[in-house]
Amino acid sequence: MVDFTVAVADPDTGETHQVDIDGQDANRFVGRELGDEVEGSAIGLDGFTLELTGGSDDAGRPLRADVRGPNLKSILLEGGTGFSPERDGERKRVTVRGREISDAVRQLNVTIVEHGDGDVADLLTEE
């Protein structure tokens, strides 16, 4: 069974809230890609629209928006998600996961794009 921890970022307040989801709610995210917009009802935010912005898999490897599919891939990076160079010109081969959400993903990062009715903190702590 698929289960995720969803980190919900609210750009209006600058706060981030974590929500654990599983079962049918988690299955709504499987097969989606980074950059897709989903309804917030899966995590208890009815009327909200969320954008998938990132995440990591069960081993902590990041999802990268420029890698297709849900599989692992070893890519040469100069910086960005998965690698922070310490000097100019530094490159490194890093294993990352593709942009498609699969059952190997454990954490999702989402940002609220459209607000619904109610306060985000109150809606997420009611459950």
Automatic annotation (TrEMBL):
Coiled coil: none annotated. Keywords: Ribonucleoprotein, Ribosomal protein. The keyword Disulfide bond does not apply. InterPro entries: Ribosomal_eS6 (IPR001377), Ribosomal_eS6_arc (IPR020924). GO terms for cellular component: ribonucleoprotein complex; ribosome. GO terms for molecular function: structural constituent of ribosome. One of its GO terms (biological process) is translation. The keyword Ribosomal protein applies. NCBIfam families: PRK04290.1-3. Belongs to the eukaryotic ribosomal protein eS6 family. This is Small ribosomal subunit protein eS6. It comes from Halorhabdus utahensis (strain DSM 12940 / JCM 11049 / AX-2). The gene is rps6e.
